[in-house]
């Protein structure tokens, strides 16, 4: 993280952050800050909303208006914020469990409304904060503290899910592909509609140690080797959808007027 | 914050280092090493200033550039 | 004296809310509260206000809190099962001190219960529905006119004390139509604003225990979390800070308790027997008192059922040397527990309970009184 950005956008008295050694959340947050810095958004009109979980602690580290909400509900809170004050640039920081399990309903309805909020999902394939239970994005057969013999359930593909639910900007990146990731997040900010960037990020402590990759560097190499910019069977990274469609708040405010009687 | 010498193009804020080893594993020139669980600059003359360490450090410990305290 | 309008209880709630300054409503359809959402969706845009139908009650509550943080007076309305779903985020609003009004139109429960029938089964849920120690204000109007004016009060309290206020209606008064005189002068309170943006400490309270509230997007750049936090708004594990915060959350209501409680004494001058009732049952009891025309029986109506007007009730009991109290309610006995706590054995306390989904009738109550 560039020191000038650190000083400019972080609450230095809240650092160092709580994330474990080798956790990629710090890198993902760094990329988000770089994208914010590259954007033309008024920094007083930025609002960070997060849910509960490791990734959601990000909101408290940034020097913006920030809201650390309840588990799974970040997008719902963000919807209220954006509709109440359409001037705000609303950025949701959430995790795979927060966003797709307990918050799955709010995710798909945010996508459906195409409300102009930017969702950054730090996907580490595990519930880290509670000690490593399987999440909706844990790969099949991966071992977790609630699937010690290997996860039997199938995975969500967050990008496909969001795309089919109606999100107008959908992308996937990794914390290893840092500059690429910054570009993806900038793309999300540019889209006037529901944007989601799935950020693949390693959890060496809760995921890696149970799955033969306890070393952060090994997890990072795995991220590099298991992803690809093209359709070659690996996990694809890049932009999957970037289209313009009617956005909820701008459509809604067309209905507003001042014709109400003062004495109701 | 951190140690900064004339010849070092990078600075580190060692207090924040959690010793994950990502910087030392990915530094192409072996400039960064772990010592007693925290990062240290060892061969600063080899540094080519690529900035990979700055980007990959999840704990915001490593900074590129010379004028950071100026 | 203003204009008199015939309106439904749920309608009175929306009109009162808009009069109080409500400019945001998020909700989810549920009987018997749905008319509130329907009318809010129609009326709010005419006042430059926003309405959104969310995907469930949980997100409705969340959206309301988000909107309130942006400076809009915000409300949601629900019933029974939906009220249960809102509880976690009601606790969040308590902890983060974000003003909002939550309407619960009580219907028969538990579970889906009797969706179209009246009940008063949420007395305890309205007080203790969310987990953890938390202060709360619950207002239970009796008539349609009460609903209009007490919705305004609910907003006033919520804004002044930075607390979620629960407005407890029931299927009967929510669906009843009555005439309401719309007064020209109504007191409207707004939340306190910080005097400056410099070194803004979002949770540094004034003497009254209430911190002035900034809003998002105005350059305060503050953090809000449901975790235990210090004056800066950031999470802390300090046991000292935790205790300080929880103590203050309760203190701000205790300090203003006398300004908050609302109650009515009806023909209690010489009574030795007292009926205590709230909501639509209170109006049935008024009818009872008028019918029996016996000044030995009086009626006490708590409008704020939380905090309960305990001091006021106790002083009435002592002054009149009350011998017996009847507590009719549409449940198996919830408010009676609070009455028993206050009475503390000083006199007899008897419940009159009905939970069939129908409103209790004056005849039924009179029968109980005569039985002795």
UniProtKB/TrEMBL annotation, chain A:
Pfam families assigned: TPP_enzyme_C (PF02775)
Keyword Protein transport: no
MF GO annotations: oxidoreductase activity, acting on the aldehyde or oxo group of donors, iron-sulfur protein as acceptor; thiamine pyrophosphate binding
Entry keywords, A to Z: Oxidoreductase
A GO BP entry: cellular respiration
Residues of the Thiamine pyrophosphate enzyme TPP-binding domain: 52-199
Name of the protein described by the UniProt record: 2-oxoglutarate ferredoxin oxidoreductase subunit beta
From TrEMBL, chain B:
Domain 4Fe-4S ferredoxin-type: 8-35, 37-67
Keyword Oxidoreductase: no
One GO MF term attached to the UniProt entry: 4 iron, 4 sulfur cluster binding
UniProt KW keywords: 4Fe-4S, Iron, Iron-sulfur, Metal-binding
Protein name as annotated: 2-oxoglutarate ferredoxin oxidoreductase subunit delta
UniProtKB/TrEMBL annotation, chain C:
Boundaries of every Pyruvate:ferredoxin oxidoreductase core domain copy: 274-365
UniProtKB keywords: Oxidoreductase
Segments forming domain Pyruvate flavodoxin/ferredoxin oxidoreductase pyrimidine binding: 16-244
Family annotation (Pfam families): PFOR_II, POR_N
Keyword Nucleotide-binding: no
InterPro entries registered for this protein in UniProt: 2-oxoacid_oxidoreductase, PFOR_II, Pyrv_Fd/Flavodoxin_OxRdtase_N, THDP-binding, Transketo_C/PFOR_II
GO molecular function: oxidoreductase activity
CDD domains: TPP_PYR_PFOR_IOR-alpha_like
Family annotation (PANTHER family): SUBUNIT OF PYRUVATE:FLAVODOXIN OXIDOREDUCTASE, SUBUNIT OF PYRUVATE:FLAVODOXIN OXIDOREDUCTASE-RELATED
Protein name: 2-oxoglutarate ferredoxin oxidoreductase subunit alpha
Annotated source species: Fonticella tunisiensis
Upper taxonomic lineage: Bacteria, Bacillati, Bacillota, Clostridia, Eubacteriales
